[in-house]
Write a structure and sequence with these properties.
With 89 residues, the protein is mainly α. 56% of the residues lie in helices and 9% in strands. The chain has one domain (2-80): lambda repressor-like DNA-binding domains (434 Repressor (Amino-terminal Domain), Orthogonal Bundle). Helix 2 (18-25) crosses helix 3 (29-36) and helix 2 (18-25) crosses helix 4 (45-55). The chain is globular, with a radius of gyration of 13 Å.
């Protein structure tokens, strides 16, 4: 089971560069690059929200679960996302 991002495909289809997305989302180019190449170790919820808002997509379009155990992948993604300050669990 693996969680991968579809950012490379989405940007390619829309002909948007990583730099353009970084500027539009208000994020560092290095952050966008890590998501683009699937080398990220941890993404904050705010980062995900900014990417999704900048591209006008849902989180389900940004991430893809690869493998048989999708429930375990969802649990893994939840563990990888740091909780927002003040957020209820």
């Amino acid at each position: 089971m693996e969680i991968k991002t579809n950012l490379s495909r989405i940007l390619g289809e829309r002909r948007i560069t990583q730099s353009e997305l970084a500027e539009k989302a208000g994020l560092a180019k290095a952050t966008i690059r890590a998501v683009y190449y699937d080398t990220w170790k941890q993404l904050g919820r705010d980062t995900i929200k900014k990417i999704c808002a900048a591209l006008d997509i849902d989180i389900s379009e940004l991430f893809e679960i690869v493998g048989d155990d999708k429930a375990a992948a969802c649990d893994a993604l939840t563990r990888r996302l740091p909780q927002e300050k003040g957020a209820q669990q």
